[in-house]
Specification:
alpha+beta; 16% strand; disordered C terminus; 611 residues; five-stranded mixed β-barrel; 13 helices; single chain; six-stranded antiparallel β-sheet
Length: 611
């Protein structure tokens, strides 16, 4: 306390009543000779260095803490916590300061609500704004609806920044628009203008800009009058909004409020340093869309459409950004989830062993030379697609003509046809399995004379599936057409209507010529063919078989059909089973095999006997 009082008295005697307690630190602001104690006589640094040389660790920090504990016992070295109010709170919440928002500046916002005392707006950066009823116009206004309407986007002048309320007061009076910037009150947080500031030069600069300012104010007044007379604000039909470039209030480092050719020029002039980078600009096709310019490689830029949804104002970036129906929350998320994976795929394919950084015609010439050298070989290379940035070309040769497949590159992987592959090796594995095209995709296109195959659509999918010609009809059978299932004789033998050769009998080696057997009726046994007769003067070659017995009655409906045999013939007669063996009387010797008698006693067995 004594040191604090002495320091404060010396400071105020030298600089006046400007001593700030919150930034006073006795460890830095009090000289060492003012302490008047024996601790300063100790050489703590040399002592700590000696201990460290002996291998006992580093102790300098601990010695300094002990030193200040002797001087300031029980003092908390941390600074007291300060409440967040005023400028600091406003800067942390809005990201704005007196340099960017101050009285006299013009801002754009969207009217959210009209009340009895004025209109409320939502400004860029999600800051609330308020226009009092007296500041809506130069003349007297009865209700805010006479000047503005909900949903209308307007430009107003800042009259006051209320940092404690996180709100800004605005004005639509032309009187406030025409005031010179120097006539507004300068914020106290900004450094004051010193005696060397040339005020006359500042006024002359303002006078030079008056002509340009008057043109701007006349255009602004005309716009406000038209909106007031029409009573529709800035609401335009959807058809009239298309084709207009709407500037965005965005401070992202990758965003540009430029045209297409200006962004392309900036990216091309960047050279190799901007390869893999992306810039975003407002789309010239739709006011609710953005255009993403991605540098695939040096000199090749791919433009991707980004749709905006849930926009707060027409000048703000949409809260939801969509690329091919995939939602993203911000520009950083697009760069991290969409551009970064594709840059990794570009690096993977360009460093592959089968990648050849040449033109497509040069690749085809090299493929023809390799095929001529090794006719039985199949050669292929990767290269960049010349007509479509962001696509690779898989060029190969099977016979004599080089062909190609477009390989798309997106954030999910390599797209060939309708399939997506995680890496290049999986693409090559599928190519080696089916060189003419992936499943669901189109085959390879010829190179050299024809038109190259276009890449797959951005909405997914690849080529058009090929339509195969129907298979040729099977040749007619020599037995005639096959009958439908379930027809035929003999309980489903399936031979009804077929002309088959018949065997005249079951005797071995006796056959006759083939005859056509007509289809018998159901459950009826066909009659045997007529007996063979010899020509006149010759005997019959064999006797005629005995007549067959007449067929029995038909089985009832639902009973299983009787078994049938080939060509409608009956089964051959079965041999009569042998009689059972005679019983062996008791005490009789067992029989010997082959019916032989037992050998006499004392004689060796003869051939054919079994012991």
């Amino acid at each position: 306390e004594l040191l604090y009082n002495q320091t404060k008295d010396e400071w105020e005697s030298e600089y006046g009543n400007t001593f700030q307690v919150n930034i006073w630190d006795p460890r830095r602001n009090v000289p060492d000779d003012r302490w008047q104690d024996k601790v300063e006589e100790l050489d703590l640094e040399a002592f700590a260095e000696r201990i460290e040389e002996n291998g006992m660790g580093k102790w300098l920090t601990q010695f300094l803490m002990i030193k200040w504990e002797f001087r300031l016992p029980f003092q908390d070295p941390r600074k007291p916590m300060e409440p967040l109010t005023g400028d600091k709170l406003f800067r942390l919440i809005t990201g704005e300061s007196d340099t960017t928002l101050r009285p006299g500046y013009e801002v754009t916002g969207k009217v959210t609500k009209n009340g009895d005392f004025g209109s409320r707006l939502k400004l860029e950066g999600d800051i609330d704004g308020f226009i009092p009823l007296r500041n809506l116009a130069d003349e007297h206004v009865q209700t805010p609806e006479d000047i503005v309407s909900a949903g209308q986007v307007i430009t107003a002048t800042i009259t006051e920044v209320k940092k404690d309320h996180i709100c800004i007061d605005l004005s639509l009076k032309m009187e406030d628009f025409r005031r010179h910037p120097s006539s507004w009150e300068r914020p106290k947080t900004l450094p004051p203008l010193d005696q060397y500031f040339d005020k006359s030069a500042a006024k002359s600069i303002e006078m030079e800009k008056n002509a340009e300012r008057e043109v701007h104010l006349a255009k602004l007044e005309r716009t406000m009058n038209n909106a007031r007379n029409n009573g529709e604000g800035n609401h335009e039909p959807e058809e009239s909004r298309k084709g207009k470039v709407s500037r965005r209030a965005c401070v992202h480092p990758a965003f540009r409020n430029l045209r297409h050719d200006e962004v392309e020029k900036e990216l091309r002039e960047g050279g190799d340093a901007l390869v893999g980078e992306a810039l975003i600009r407002p789309s010239s096709q739709n006011c609710d869309a953005l255009a993403l310019h991605w540098v695939v490689r040096k000199g090749r830029i791919k433009v991707i459409e980004v749709l905006e949804e849930e926009k707060d104002t027409s000048a703000s970036i949409g809260n939801v950004l969509k690329i091919k129906n995939e939602p993203y929350g911000s520009i950083d998320e697009i760069l991290g989830r969409y551009i970064a994976p594709m840059n990794g795929l570009i690096e993977e394919i360009s460093s592959h062993r089968k990648f050849n950084d040449k033109l497509e015609d040069e690749i085809d010439t090299e493929l023809r030379a390799l095929k001529k050298r090794v006719p039985k070989g199949i050669f292929y290379f990767f290269c960049w697609h010349e007509e479509h940035p962001g696509y690779a070309s898989l060029r190969y040769i099977l016979q004599n003509t080089p062909r190609s497949h477009p390989i798309g590159i997106n954030c999910e992987g390599f797209q060939w046809g309708k399939k997506i592959y995680g890496n290049v090796e999986k693409v090559l594995a599928e190519f080696k399995t089916n060189p003419h095209g992936s499943a669901g995709g189109r085959g390879g296109s010829r190179s050299g004379g024809g038109r190259p195959a276009p890449p797959p659509s951005r909405h997914g999918g690849g080529g058009v599936p090929s339509h195969h010609s129907p298979p040729p009809p099977k040749p007619a059978s020599q037995w005639g057409p096959r009958p439908p299932s379930g027809s035929g004789s003999g309980g489903g033998s399936g031979t009804s209507g077929w002309k088959q050769p018949t065997n005249s009998g079951w005797q071995s080696g006796t056959t006759t010529t083939s005859t056509a057997v007509p289809t018998p009726s159901k459950w009826k046994t066909p009659q045997p063919p007529p007996p063979a007769t010899a020509p006149p003067g010759r005997p019959n070659p064999r006797p005629s078989p005995p007549p067959r017995p007449p067929p029995g009655p038909s089985p009832p409906r639902g009973a299983p059909p009787p078994p049938t045999f080939p060509f409608g013939q009956p089964p051959p007669p079965m041999a009569k089973p042998p009689p059972p063996p005679a019983p062996i009387p008791p005490g009789a010797p067992p029989p010997f095999p082959y019916g032989q008698p037992p050998p006499p006693p004392g004689m060796p067995p003869q051939q054919g006997w079994r012991s």
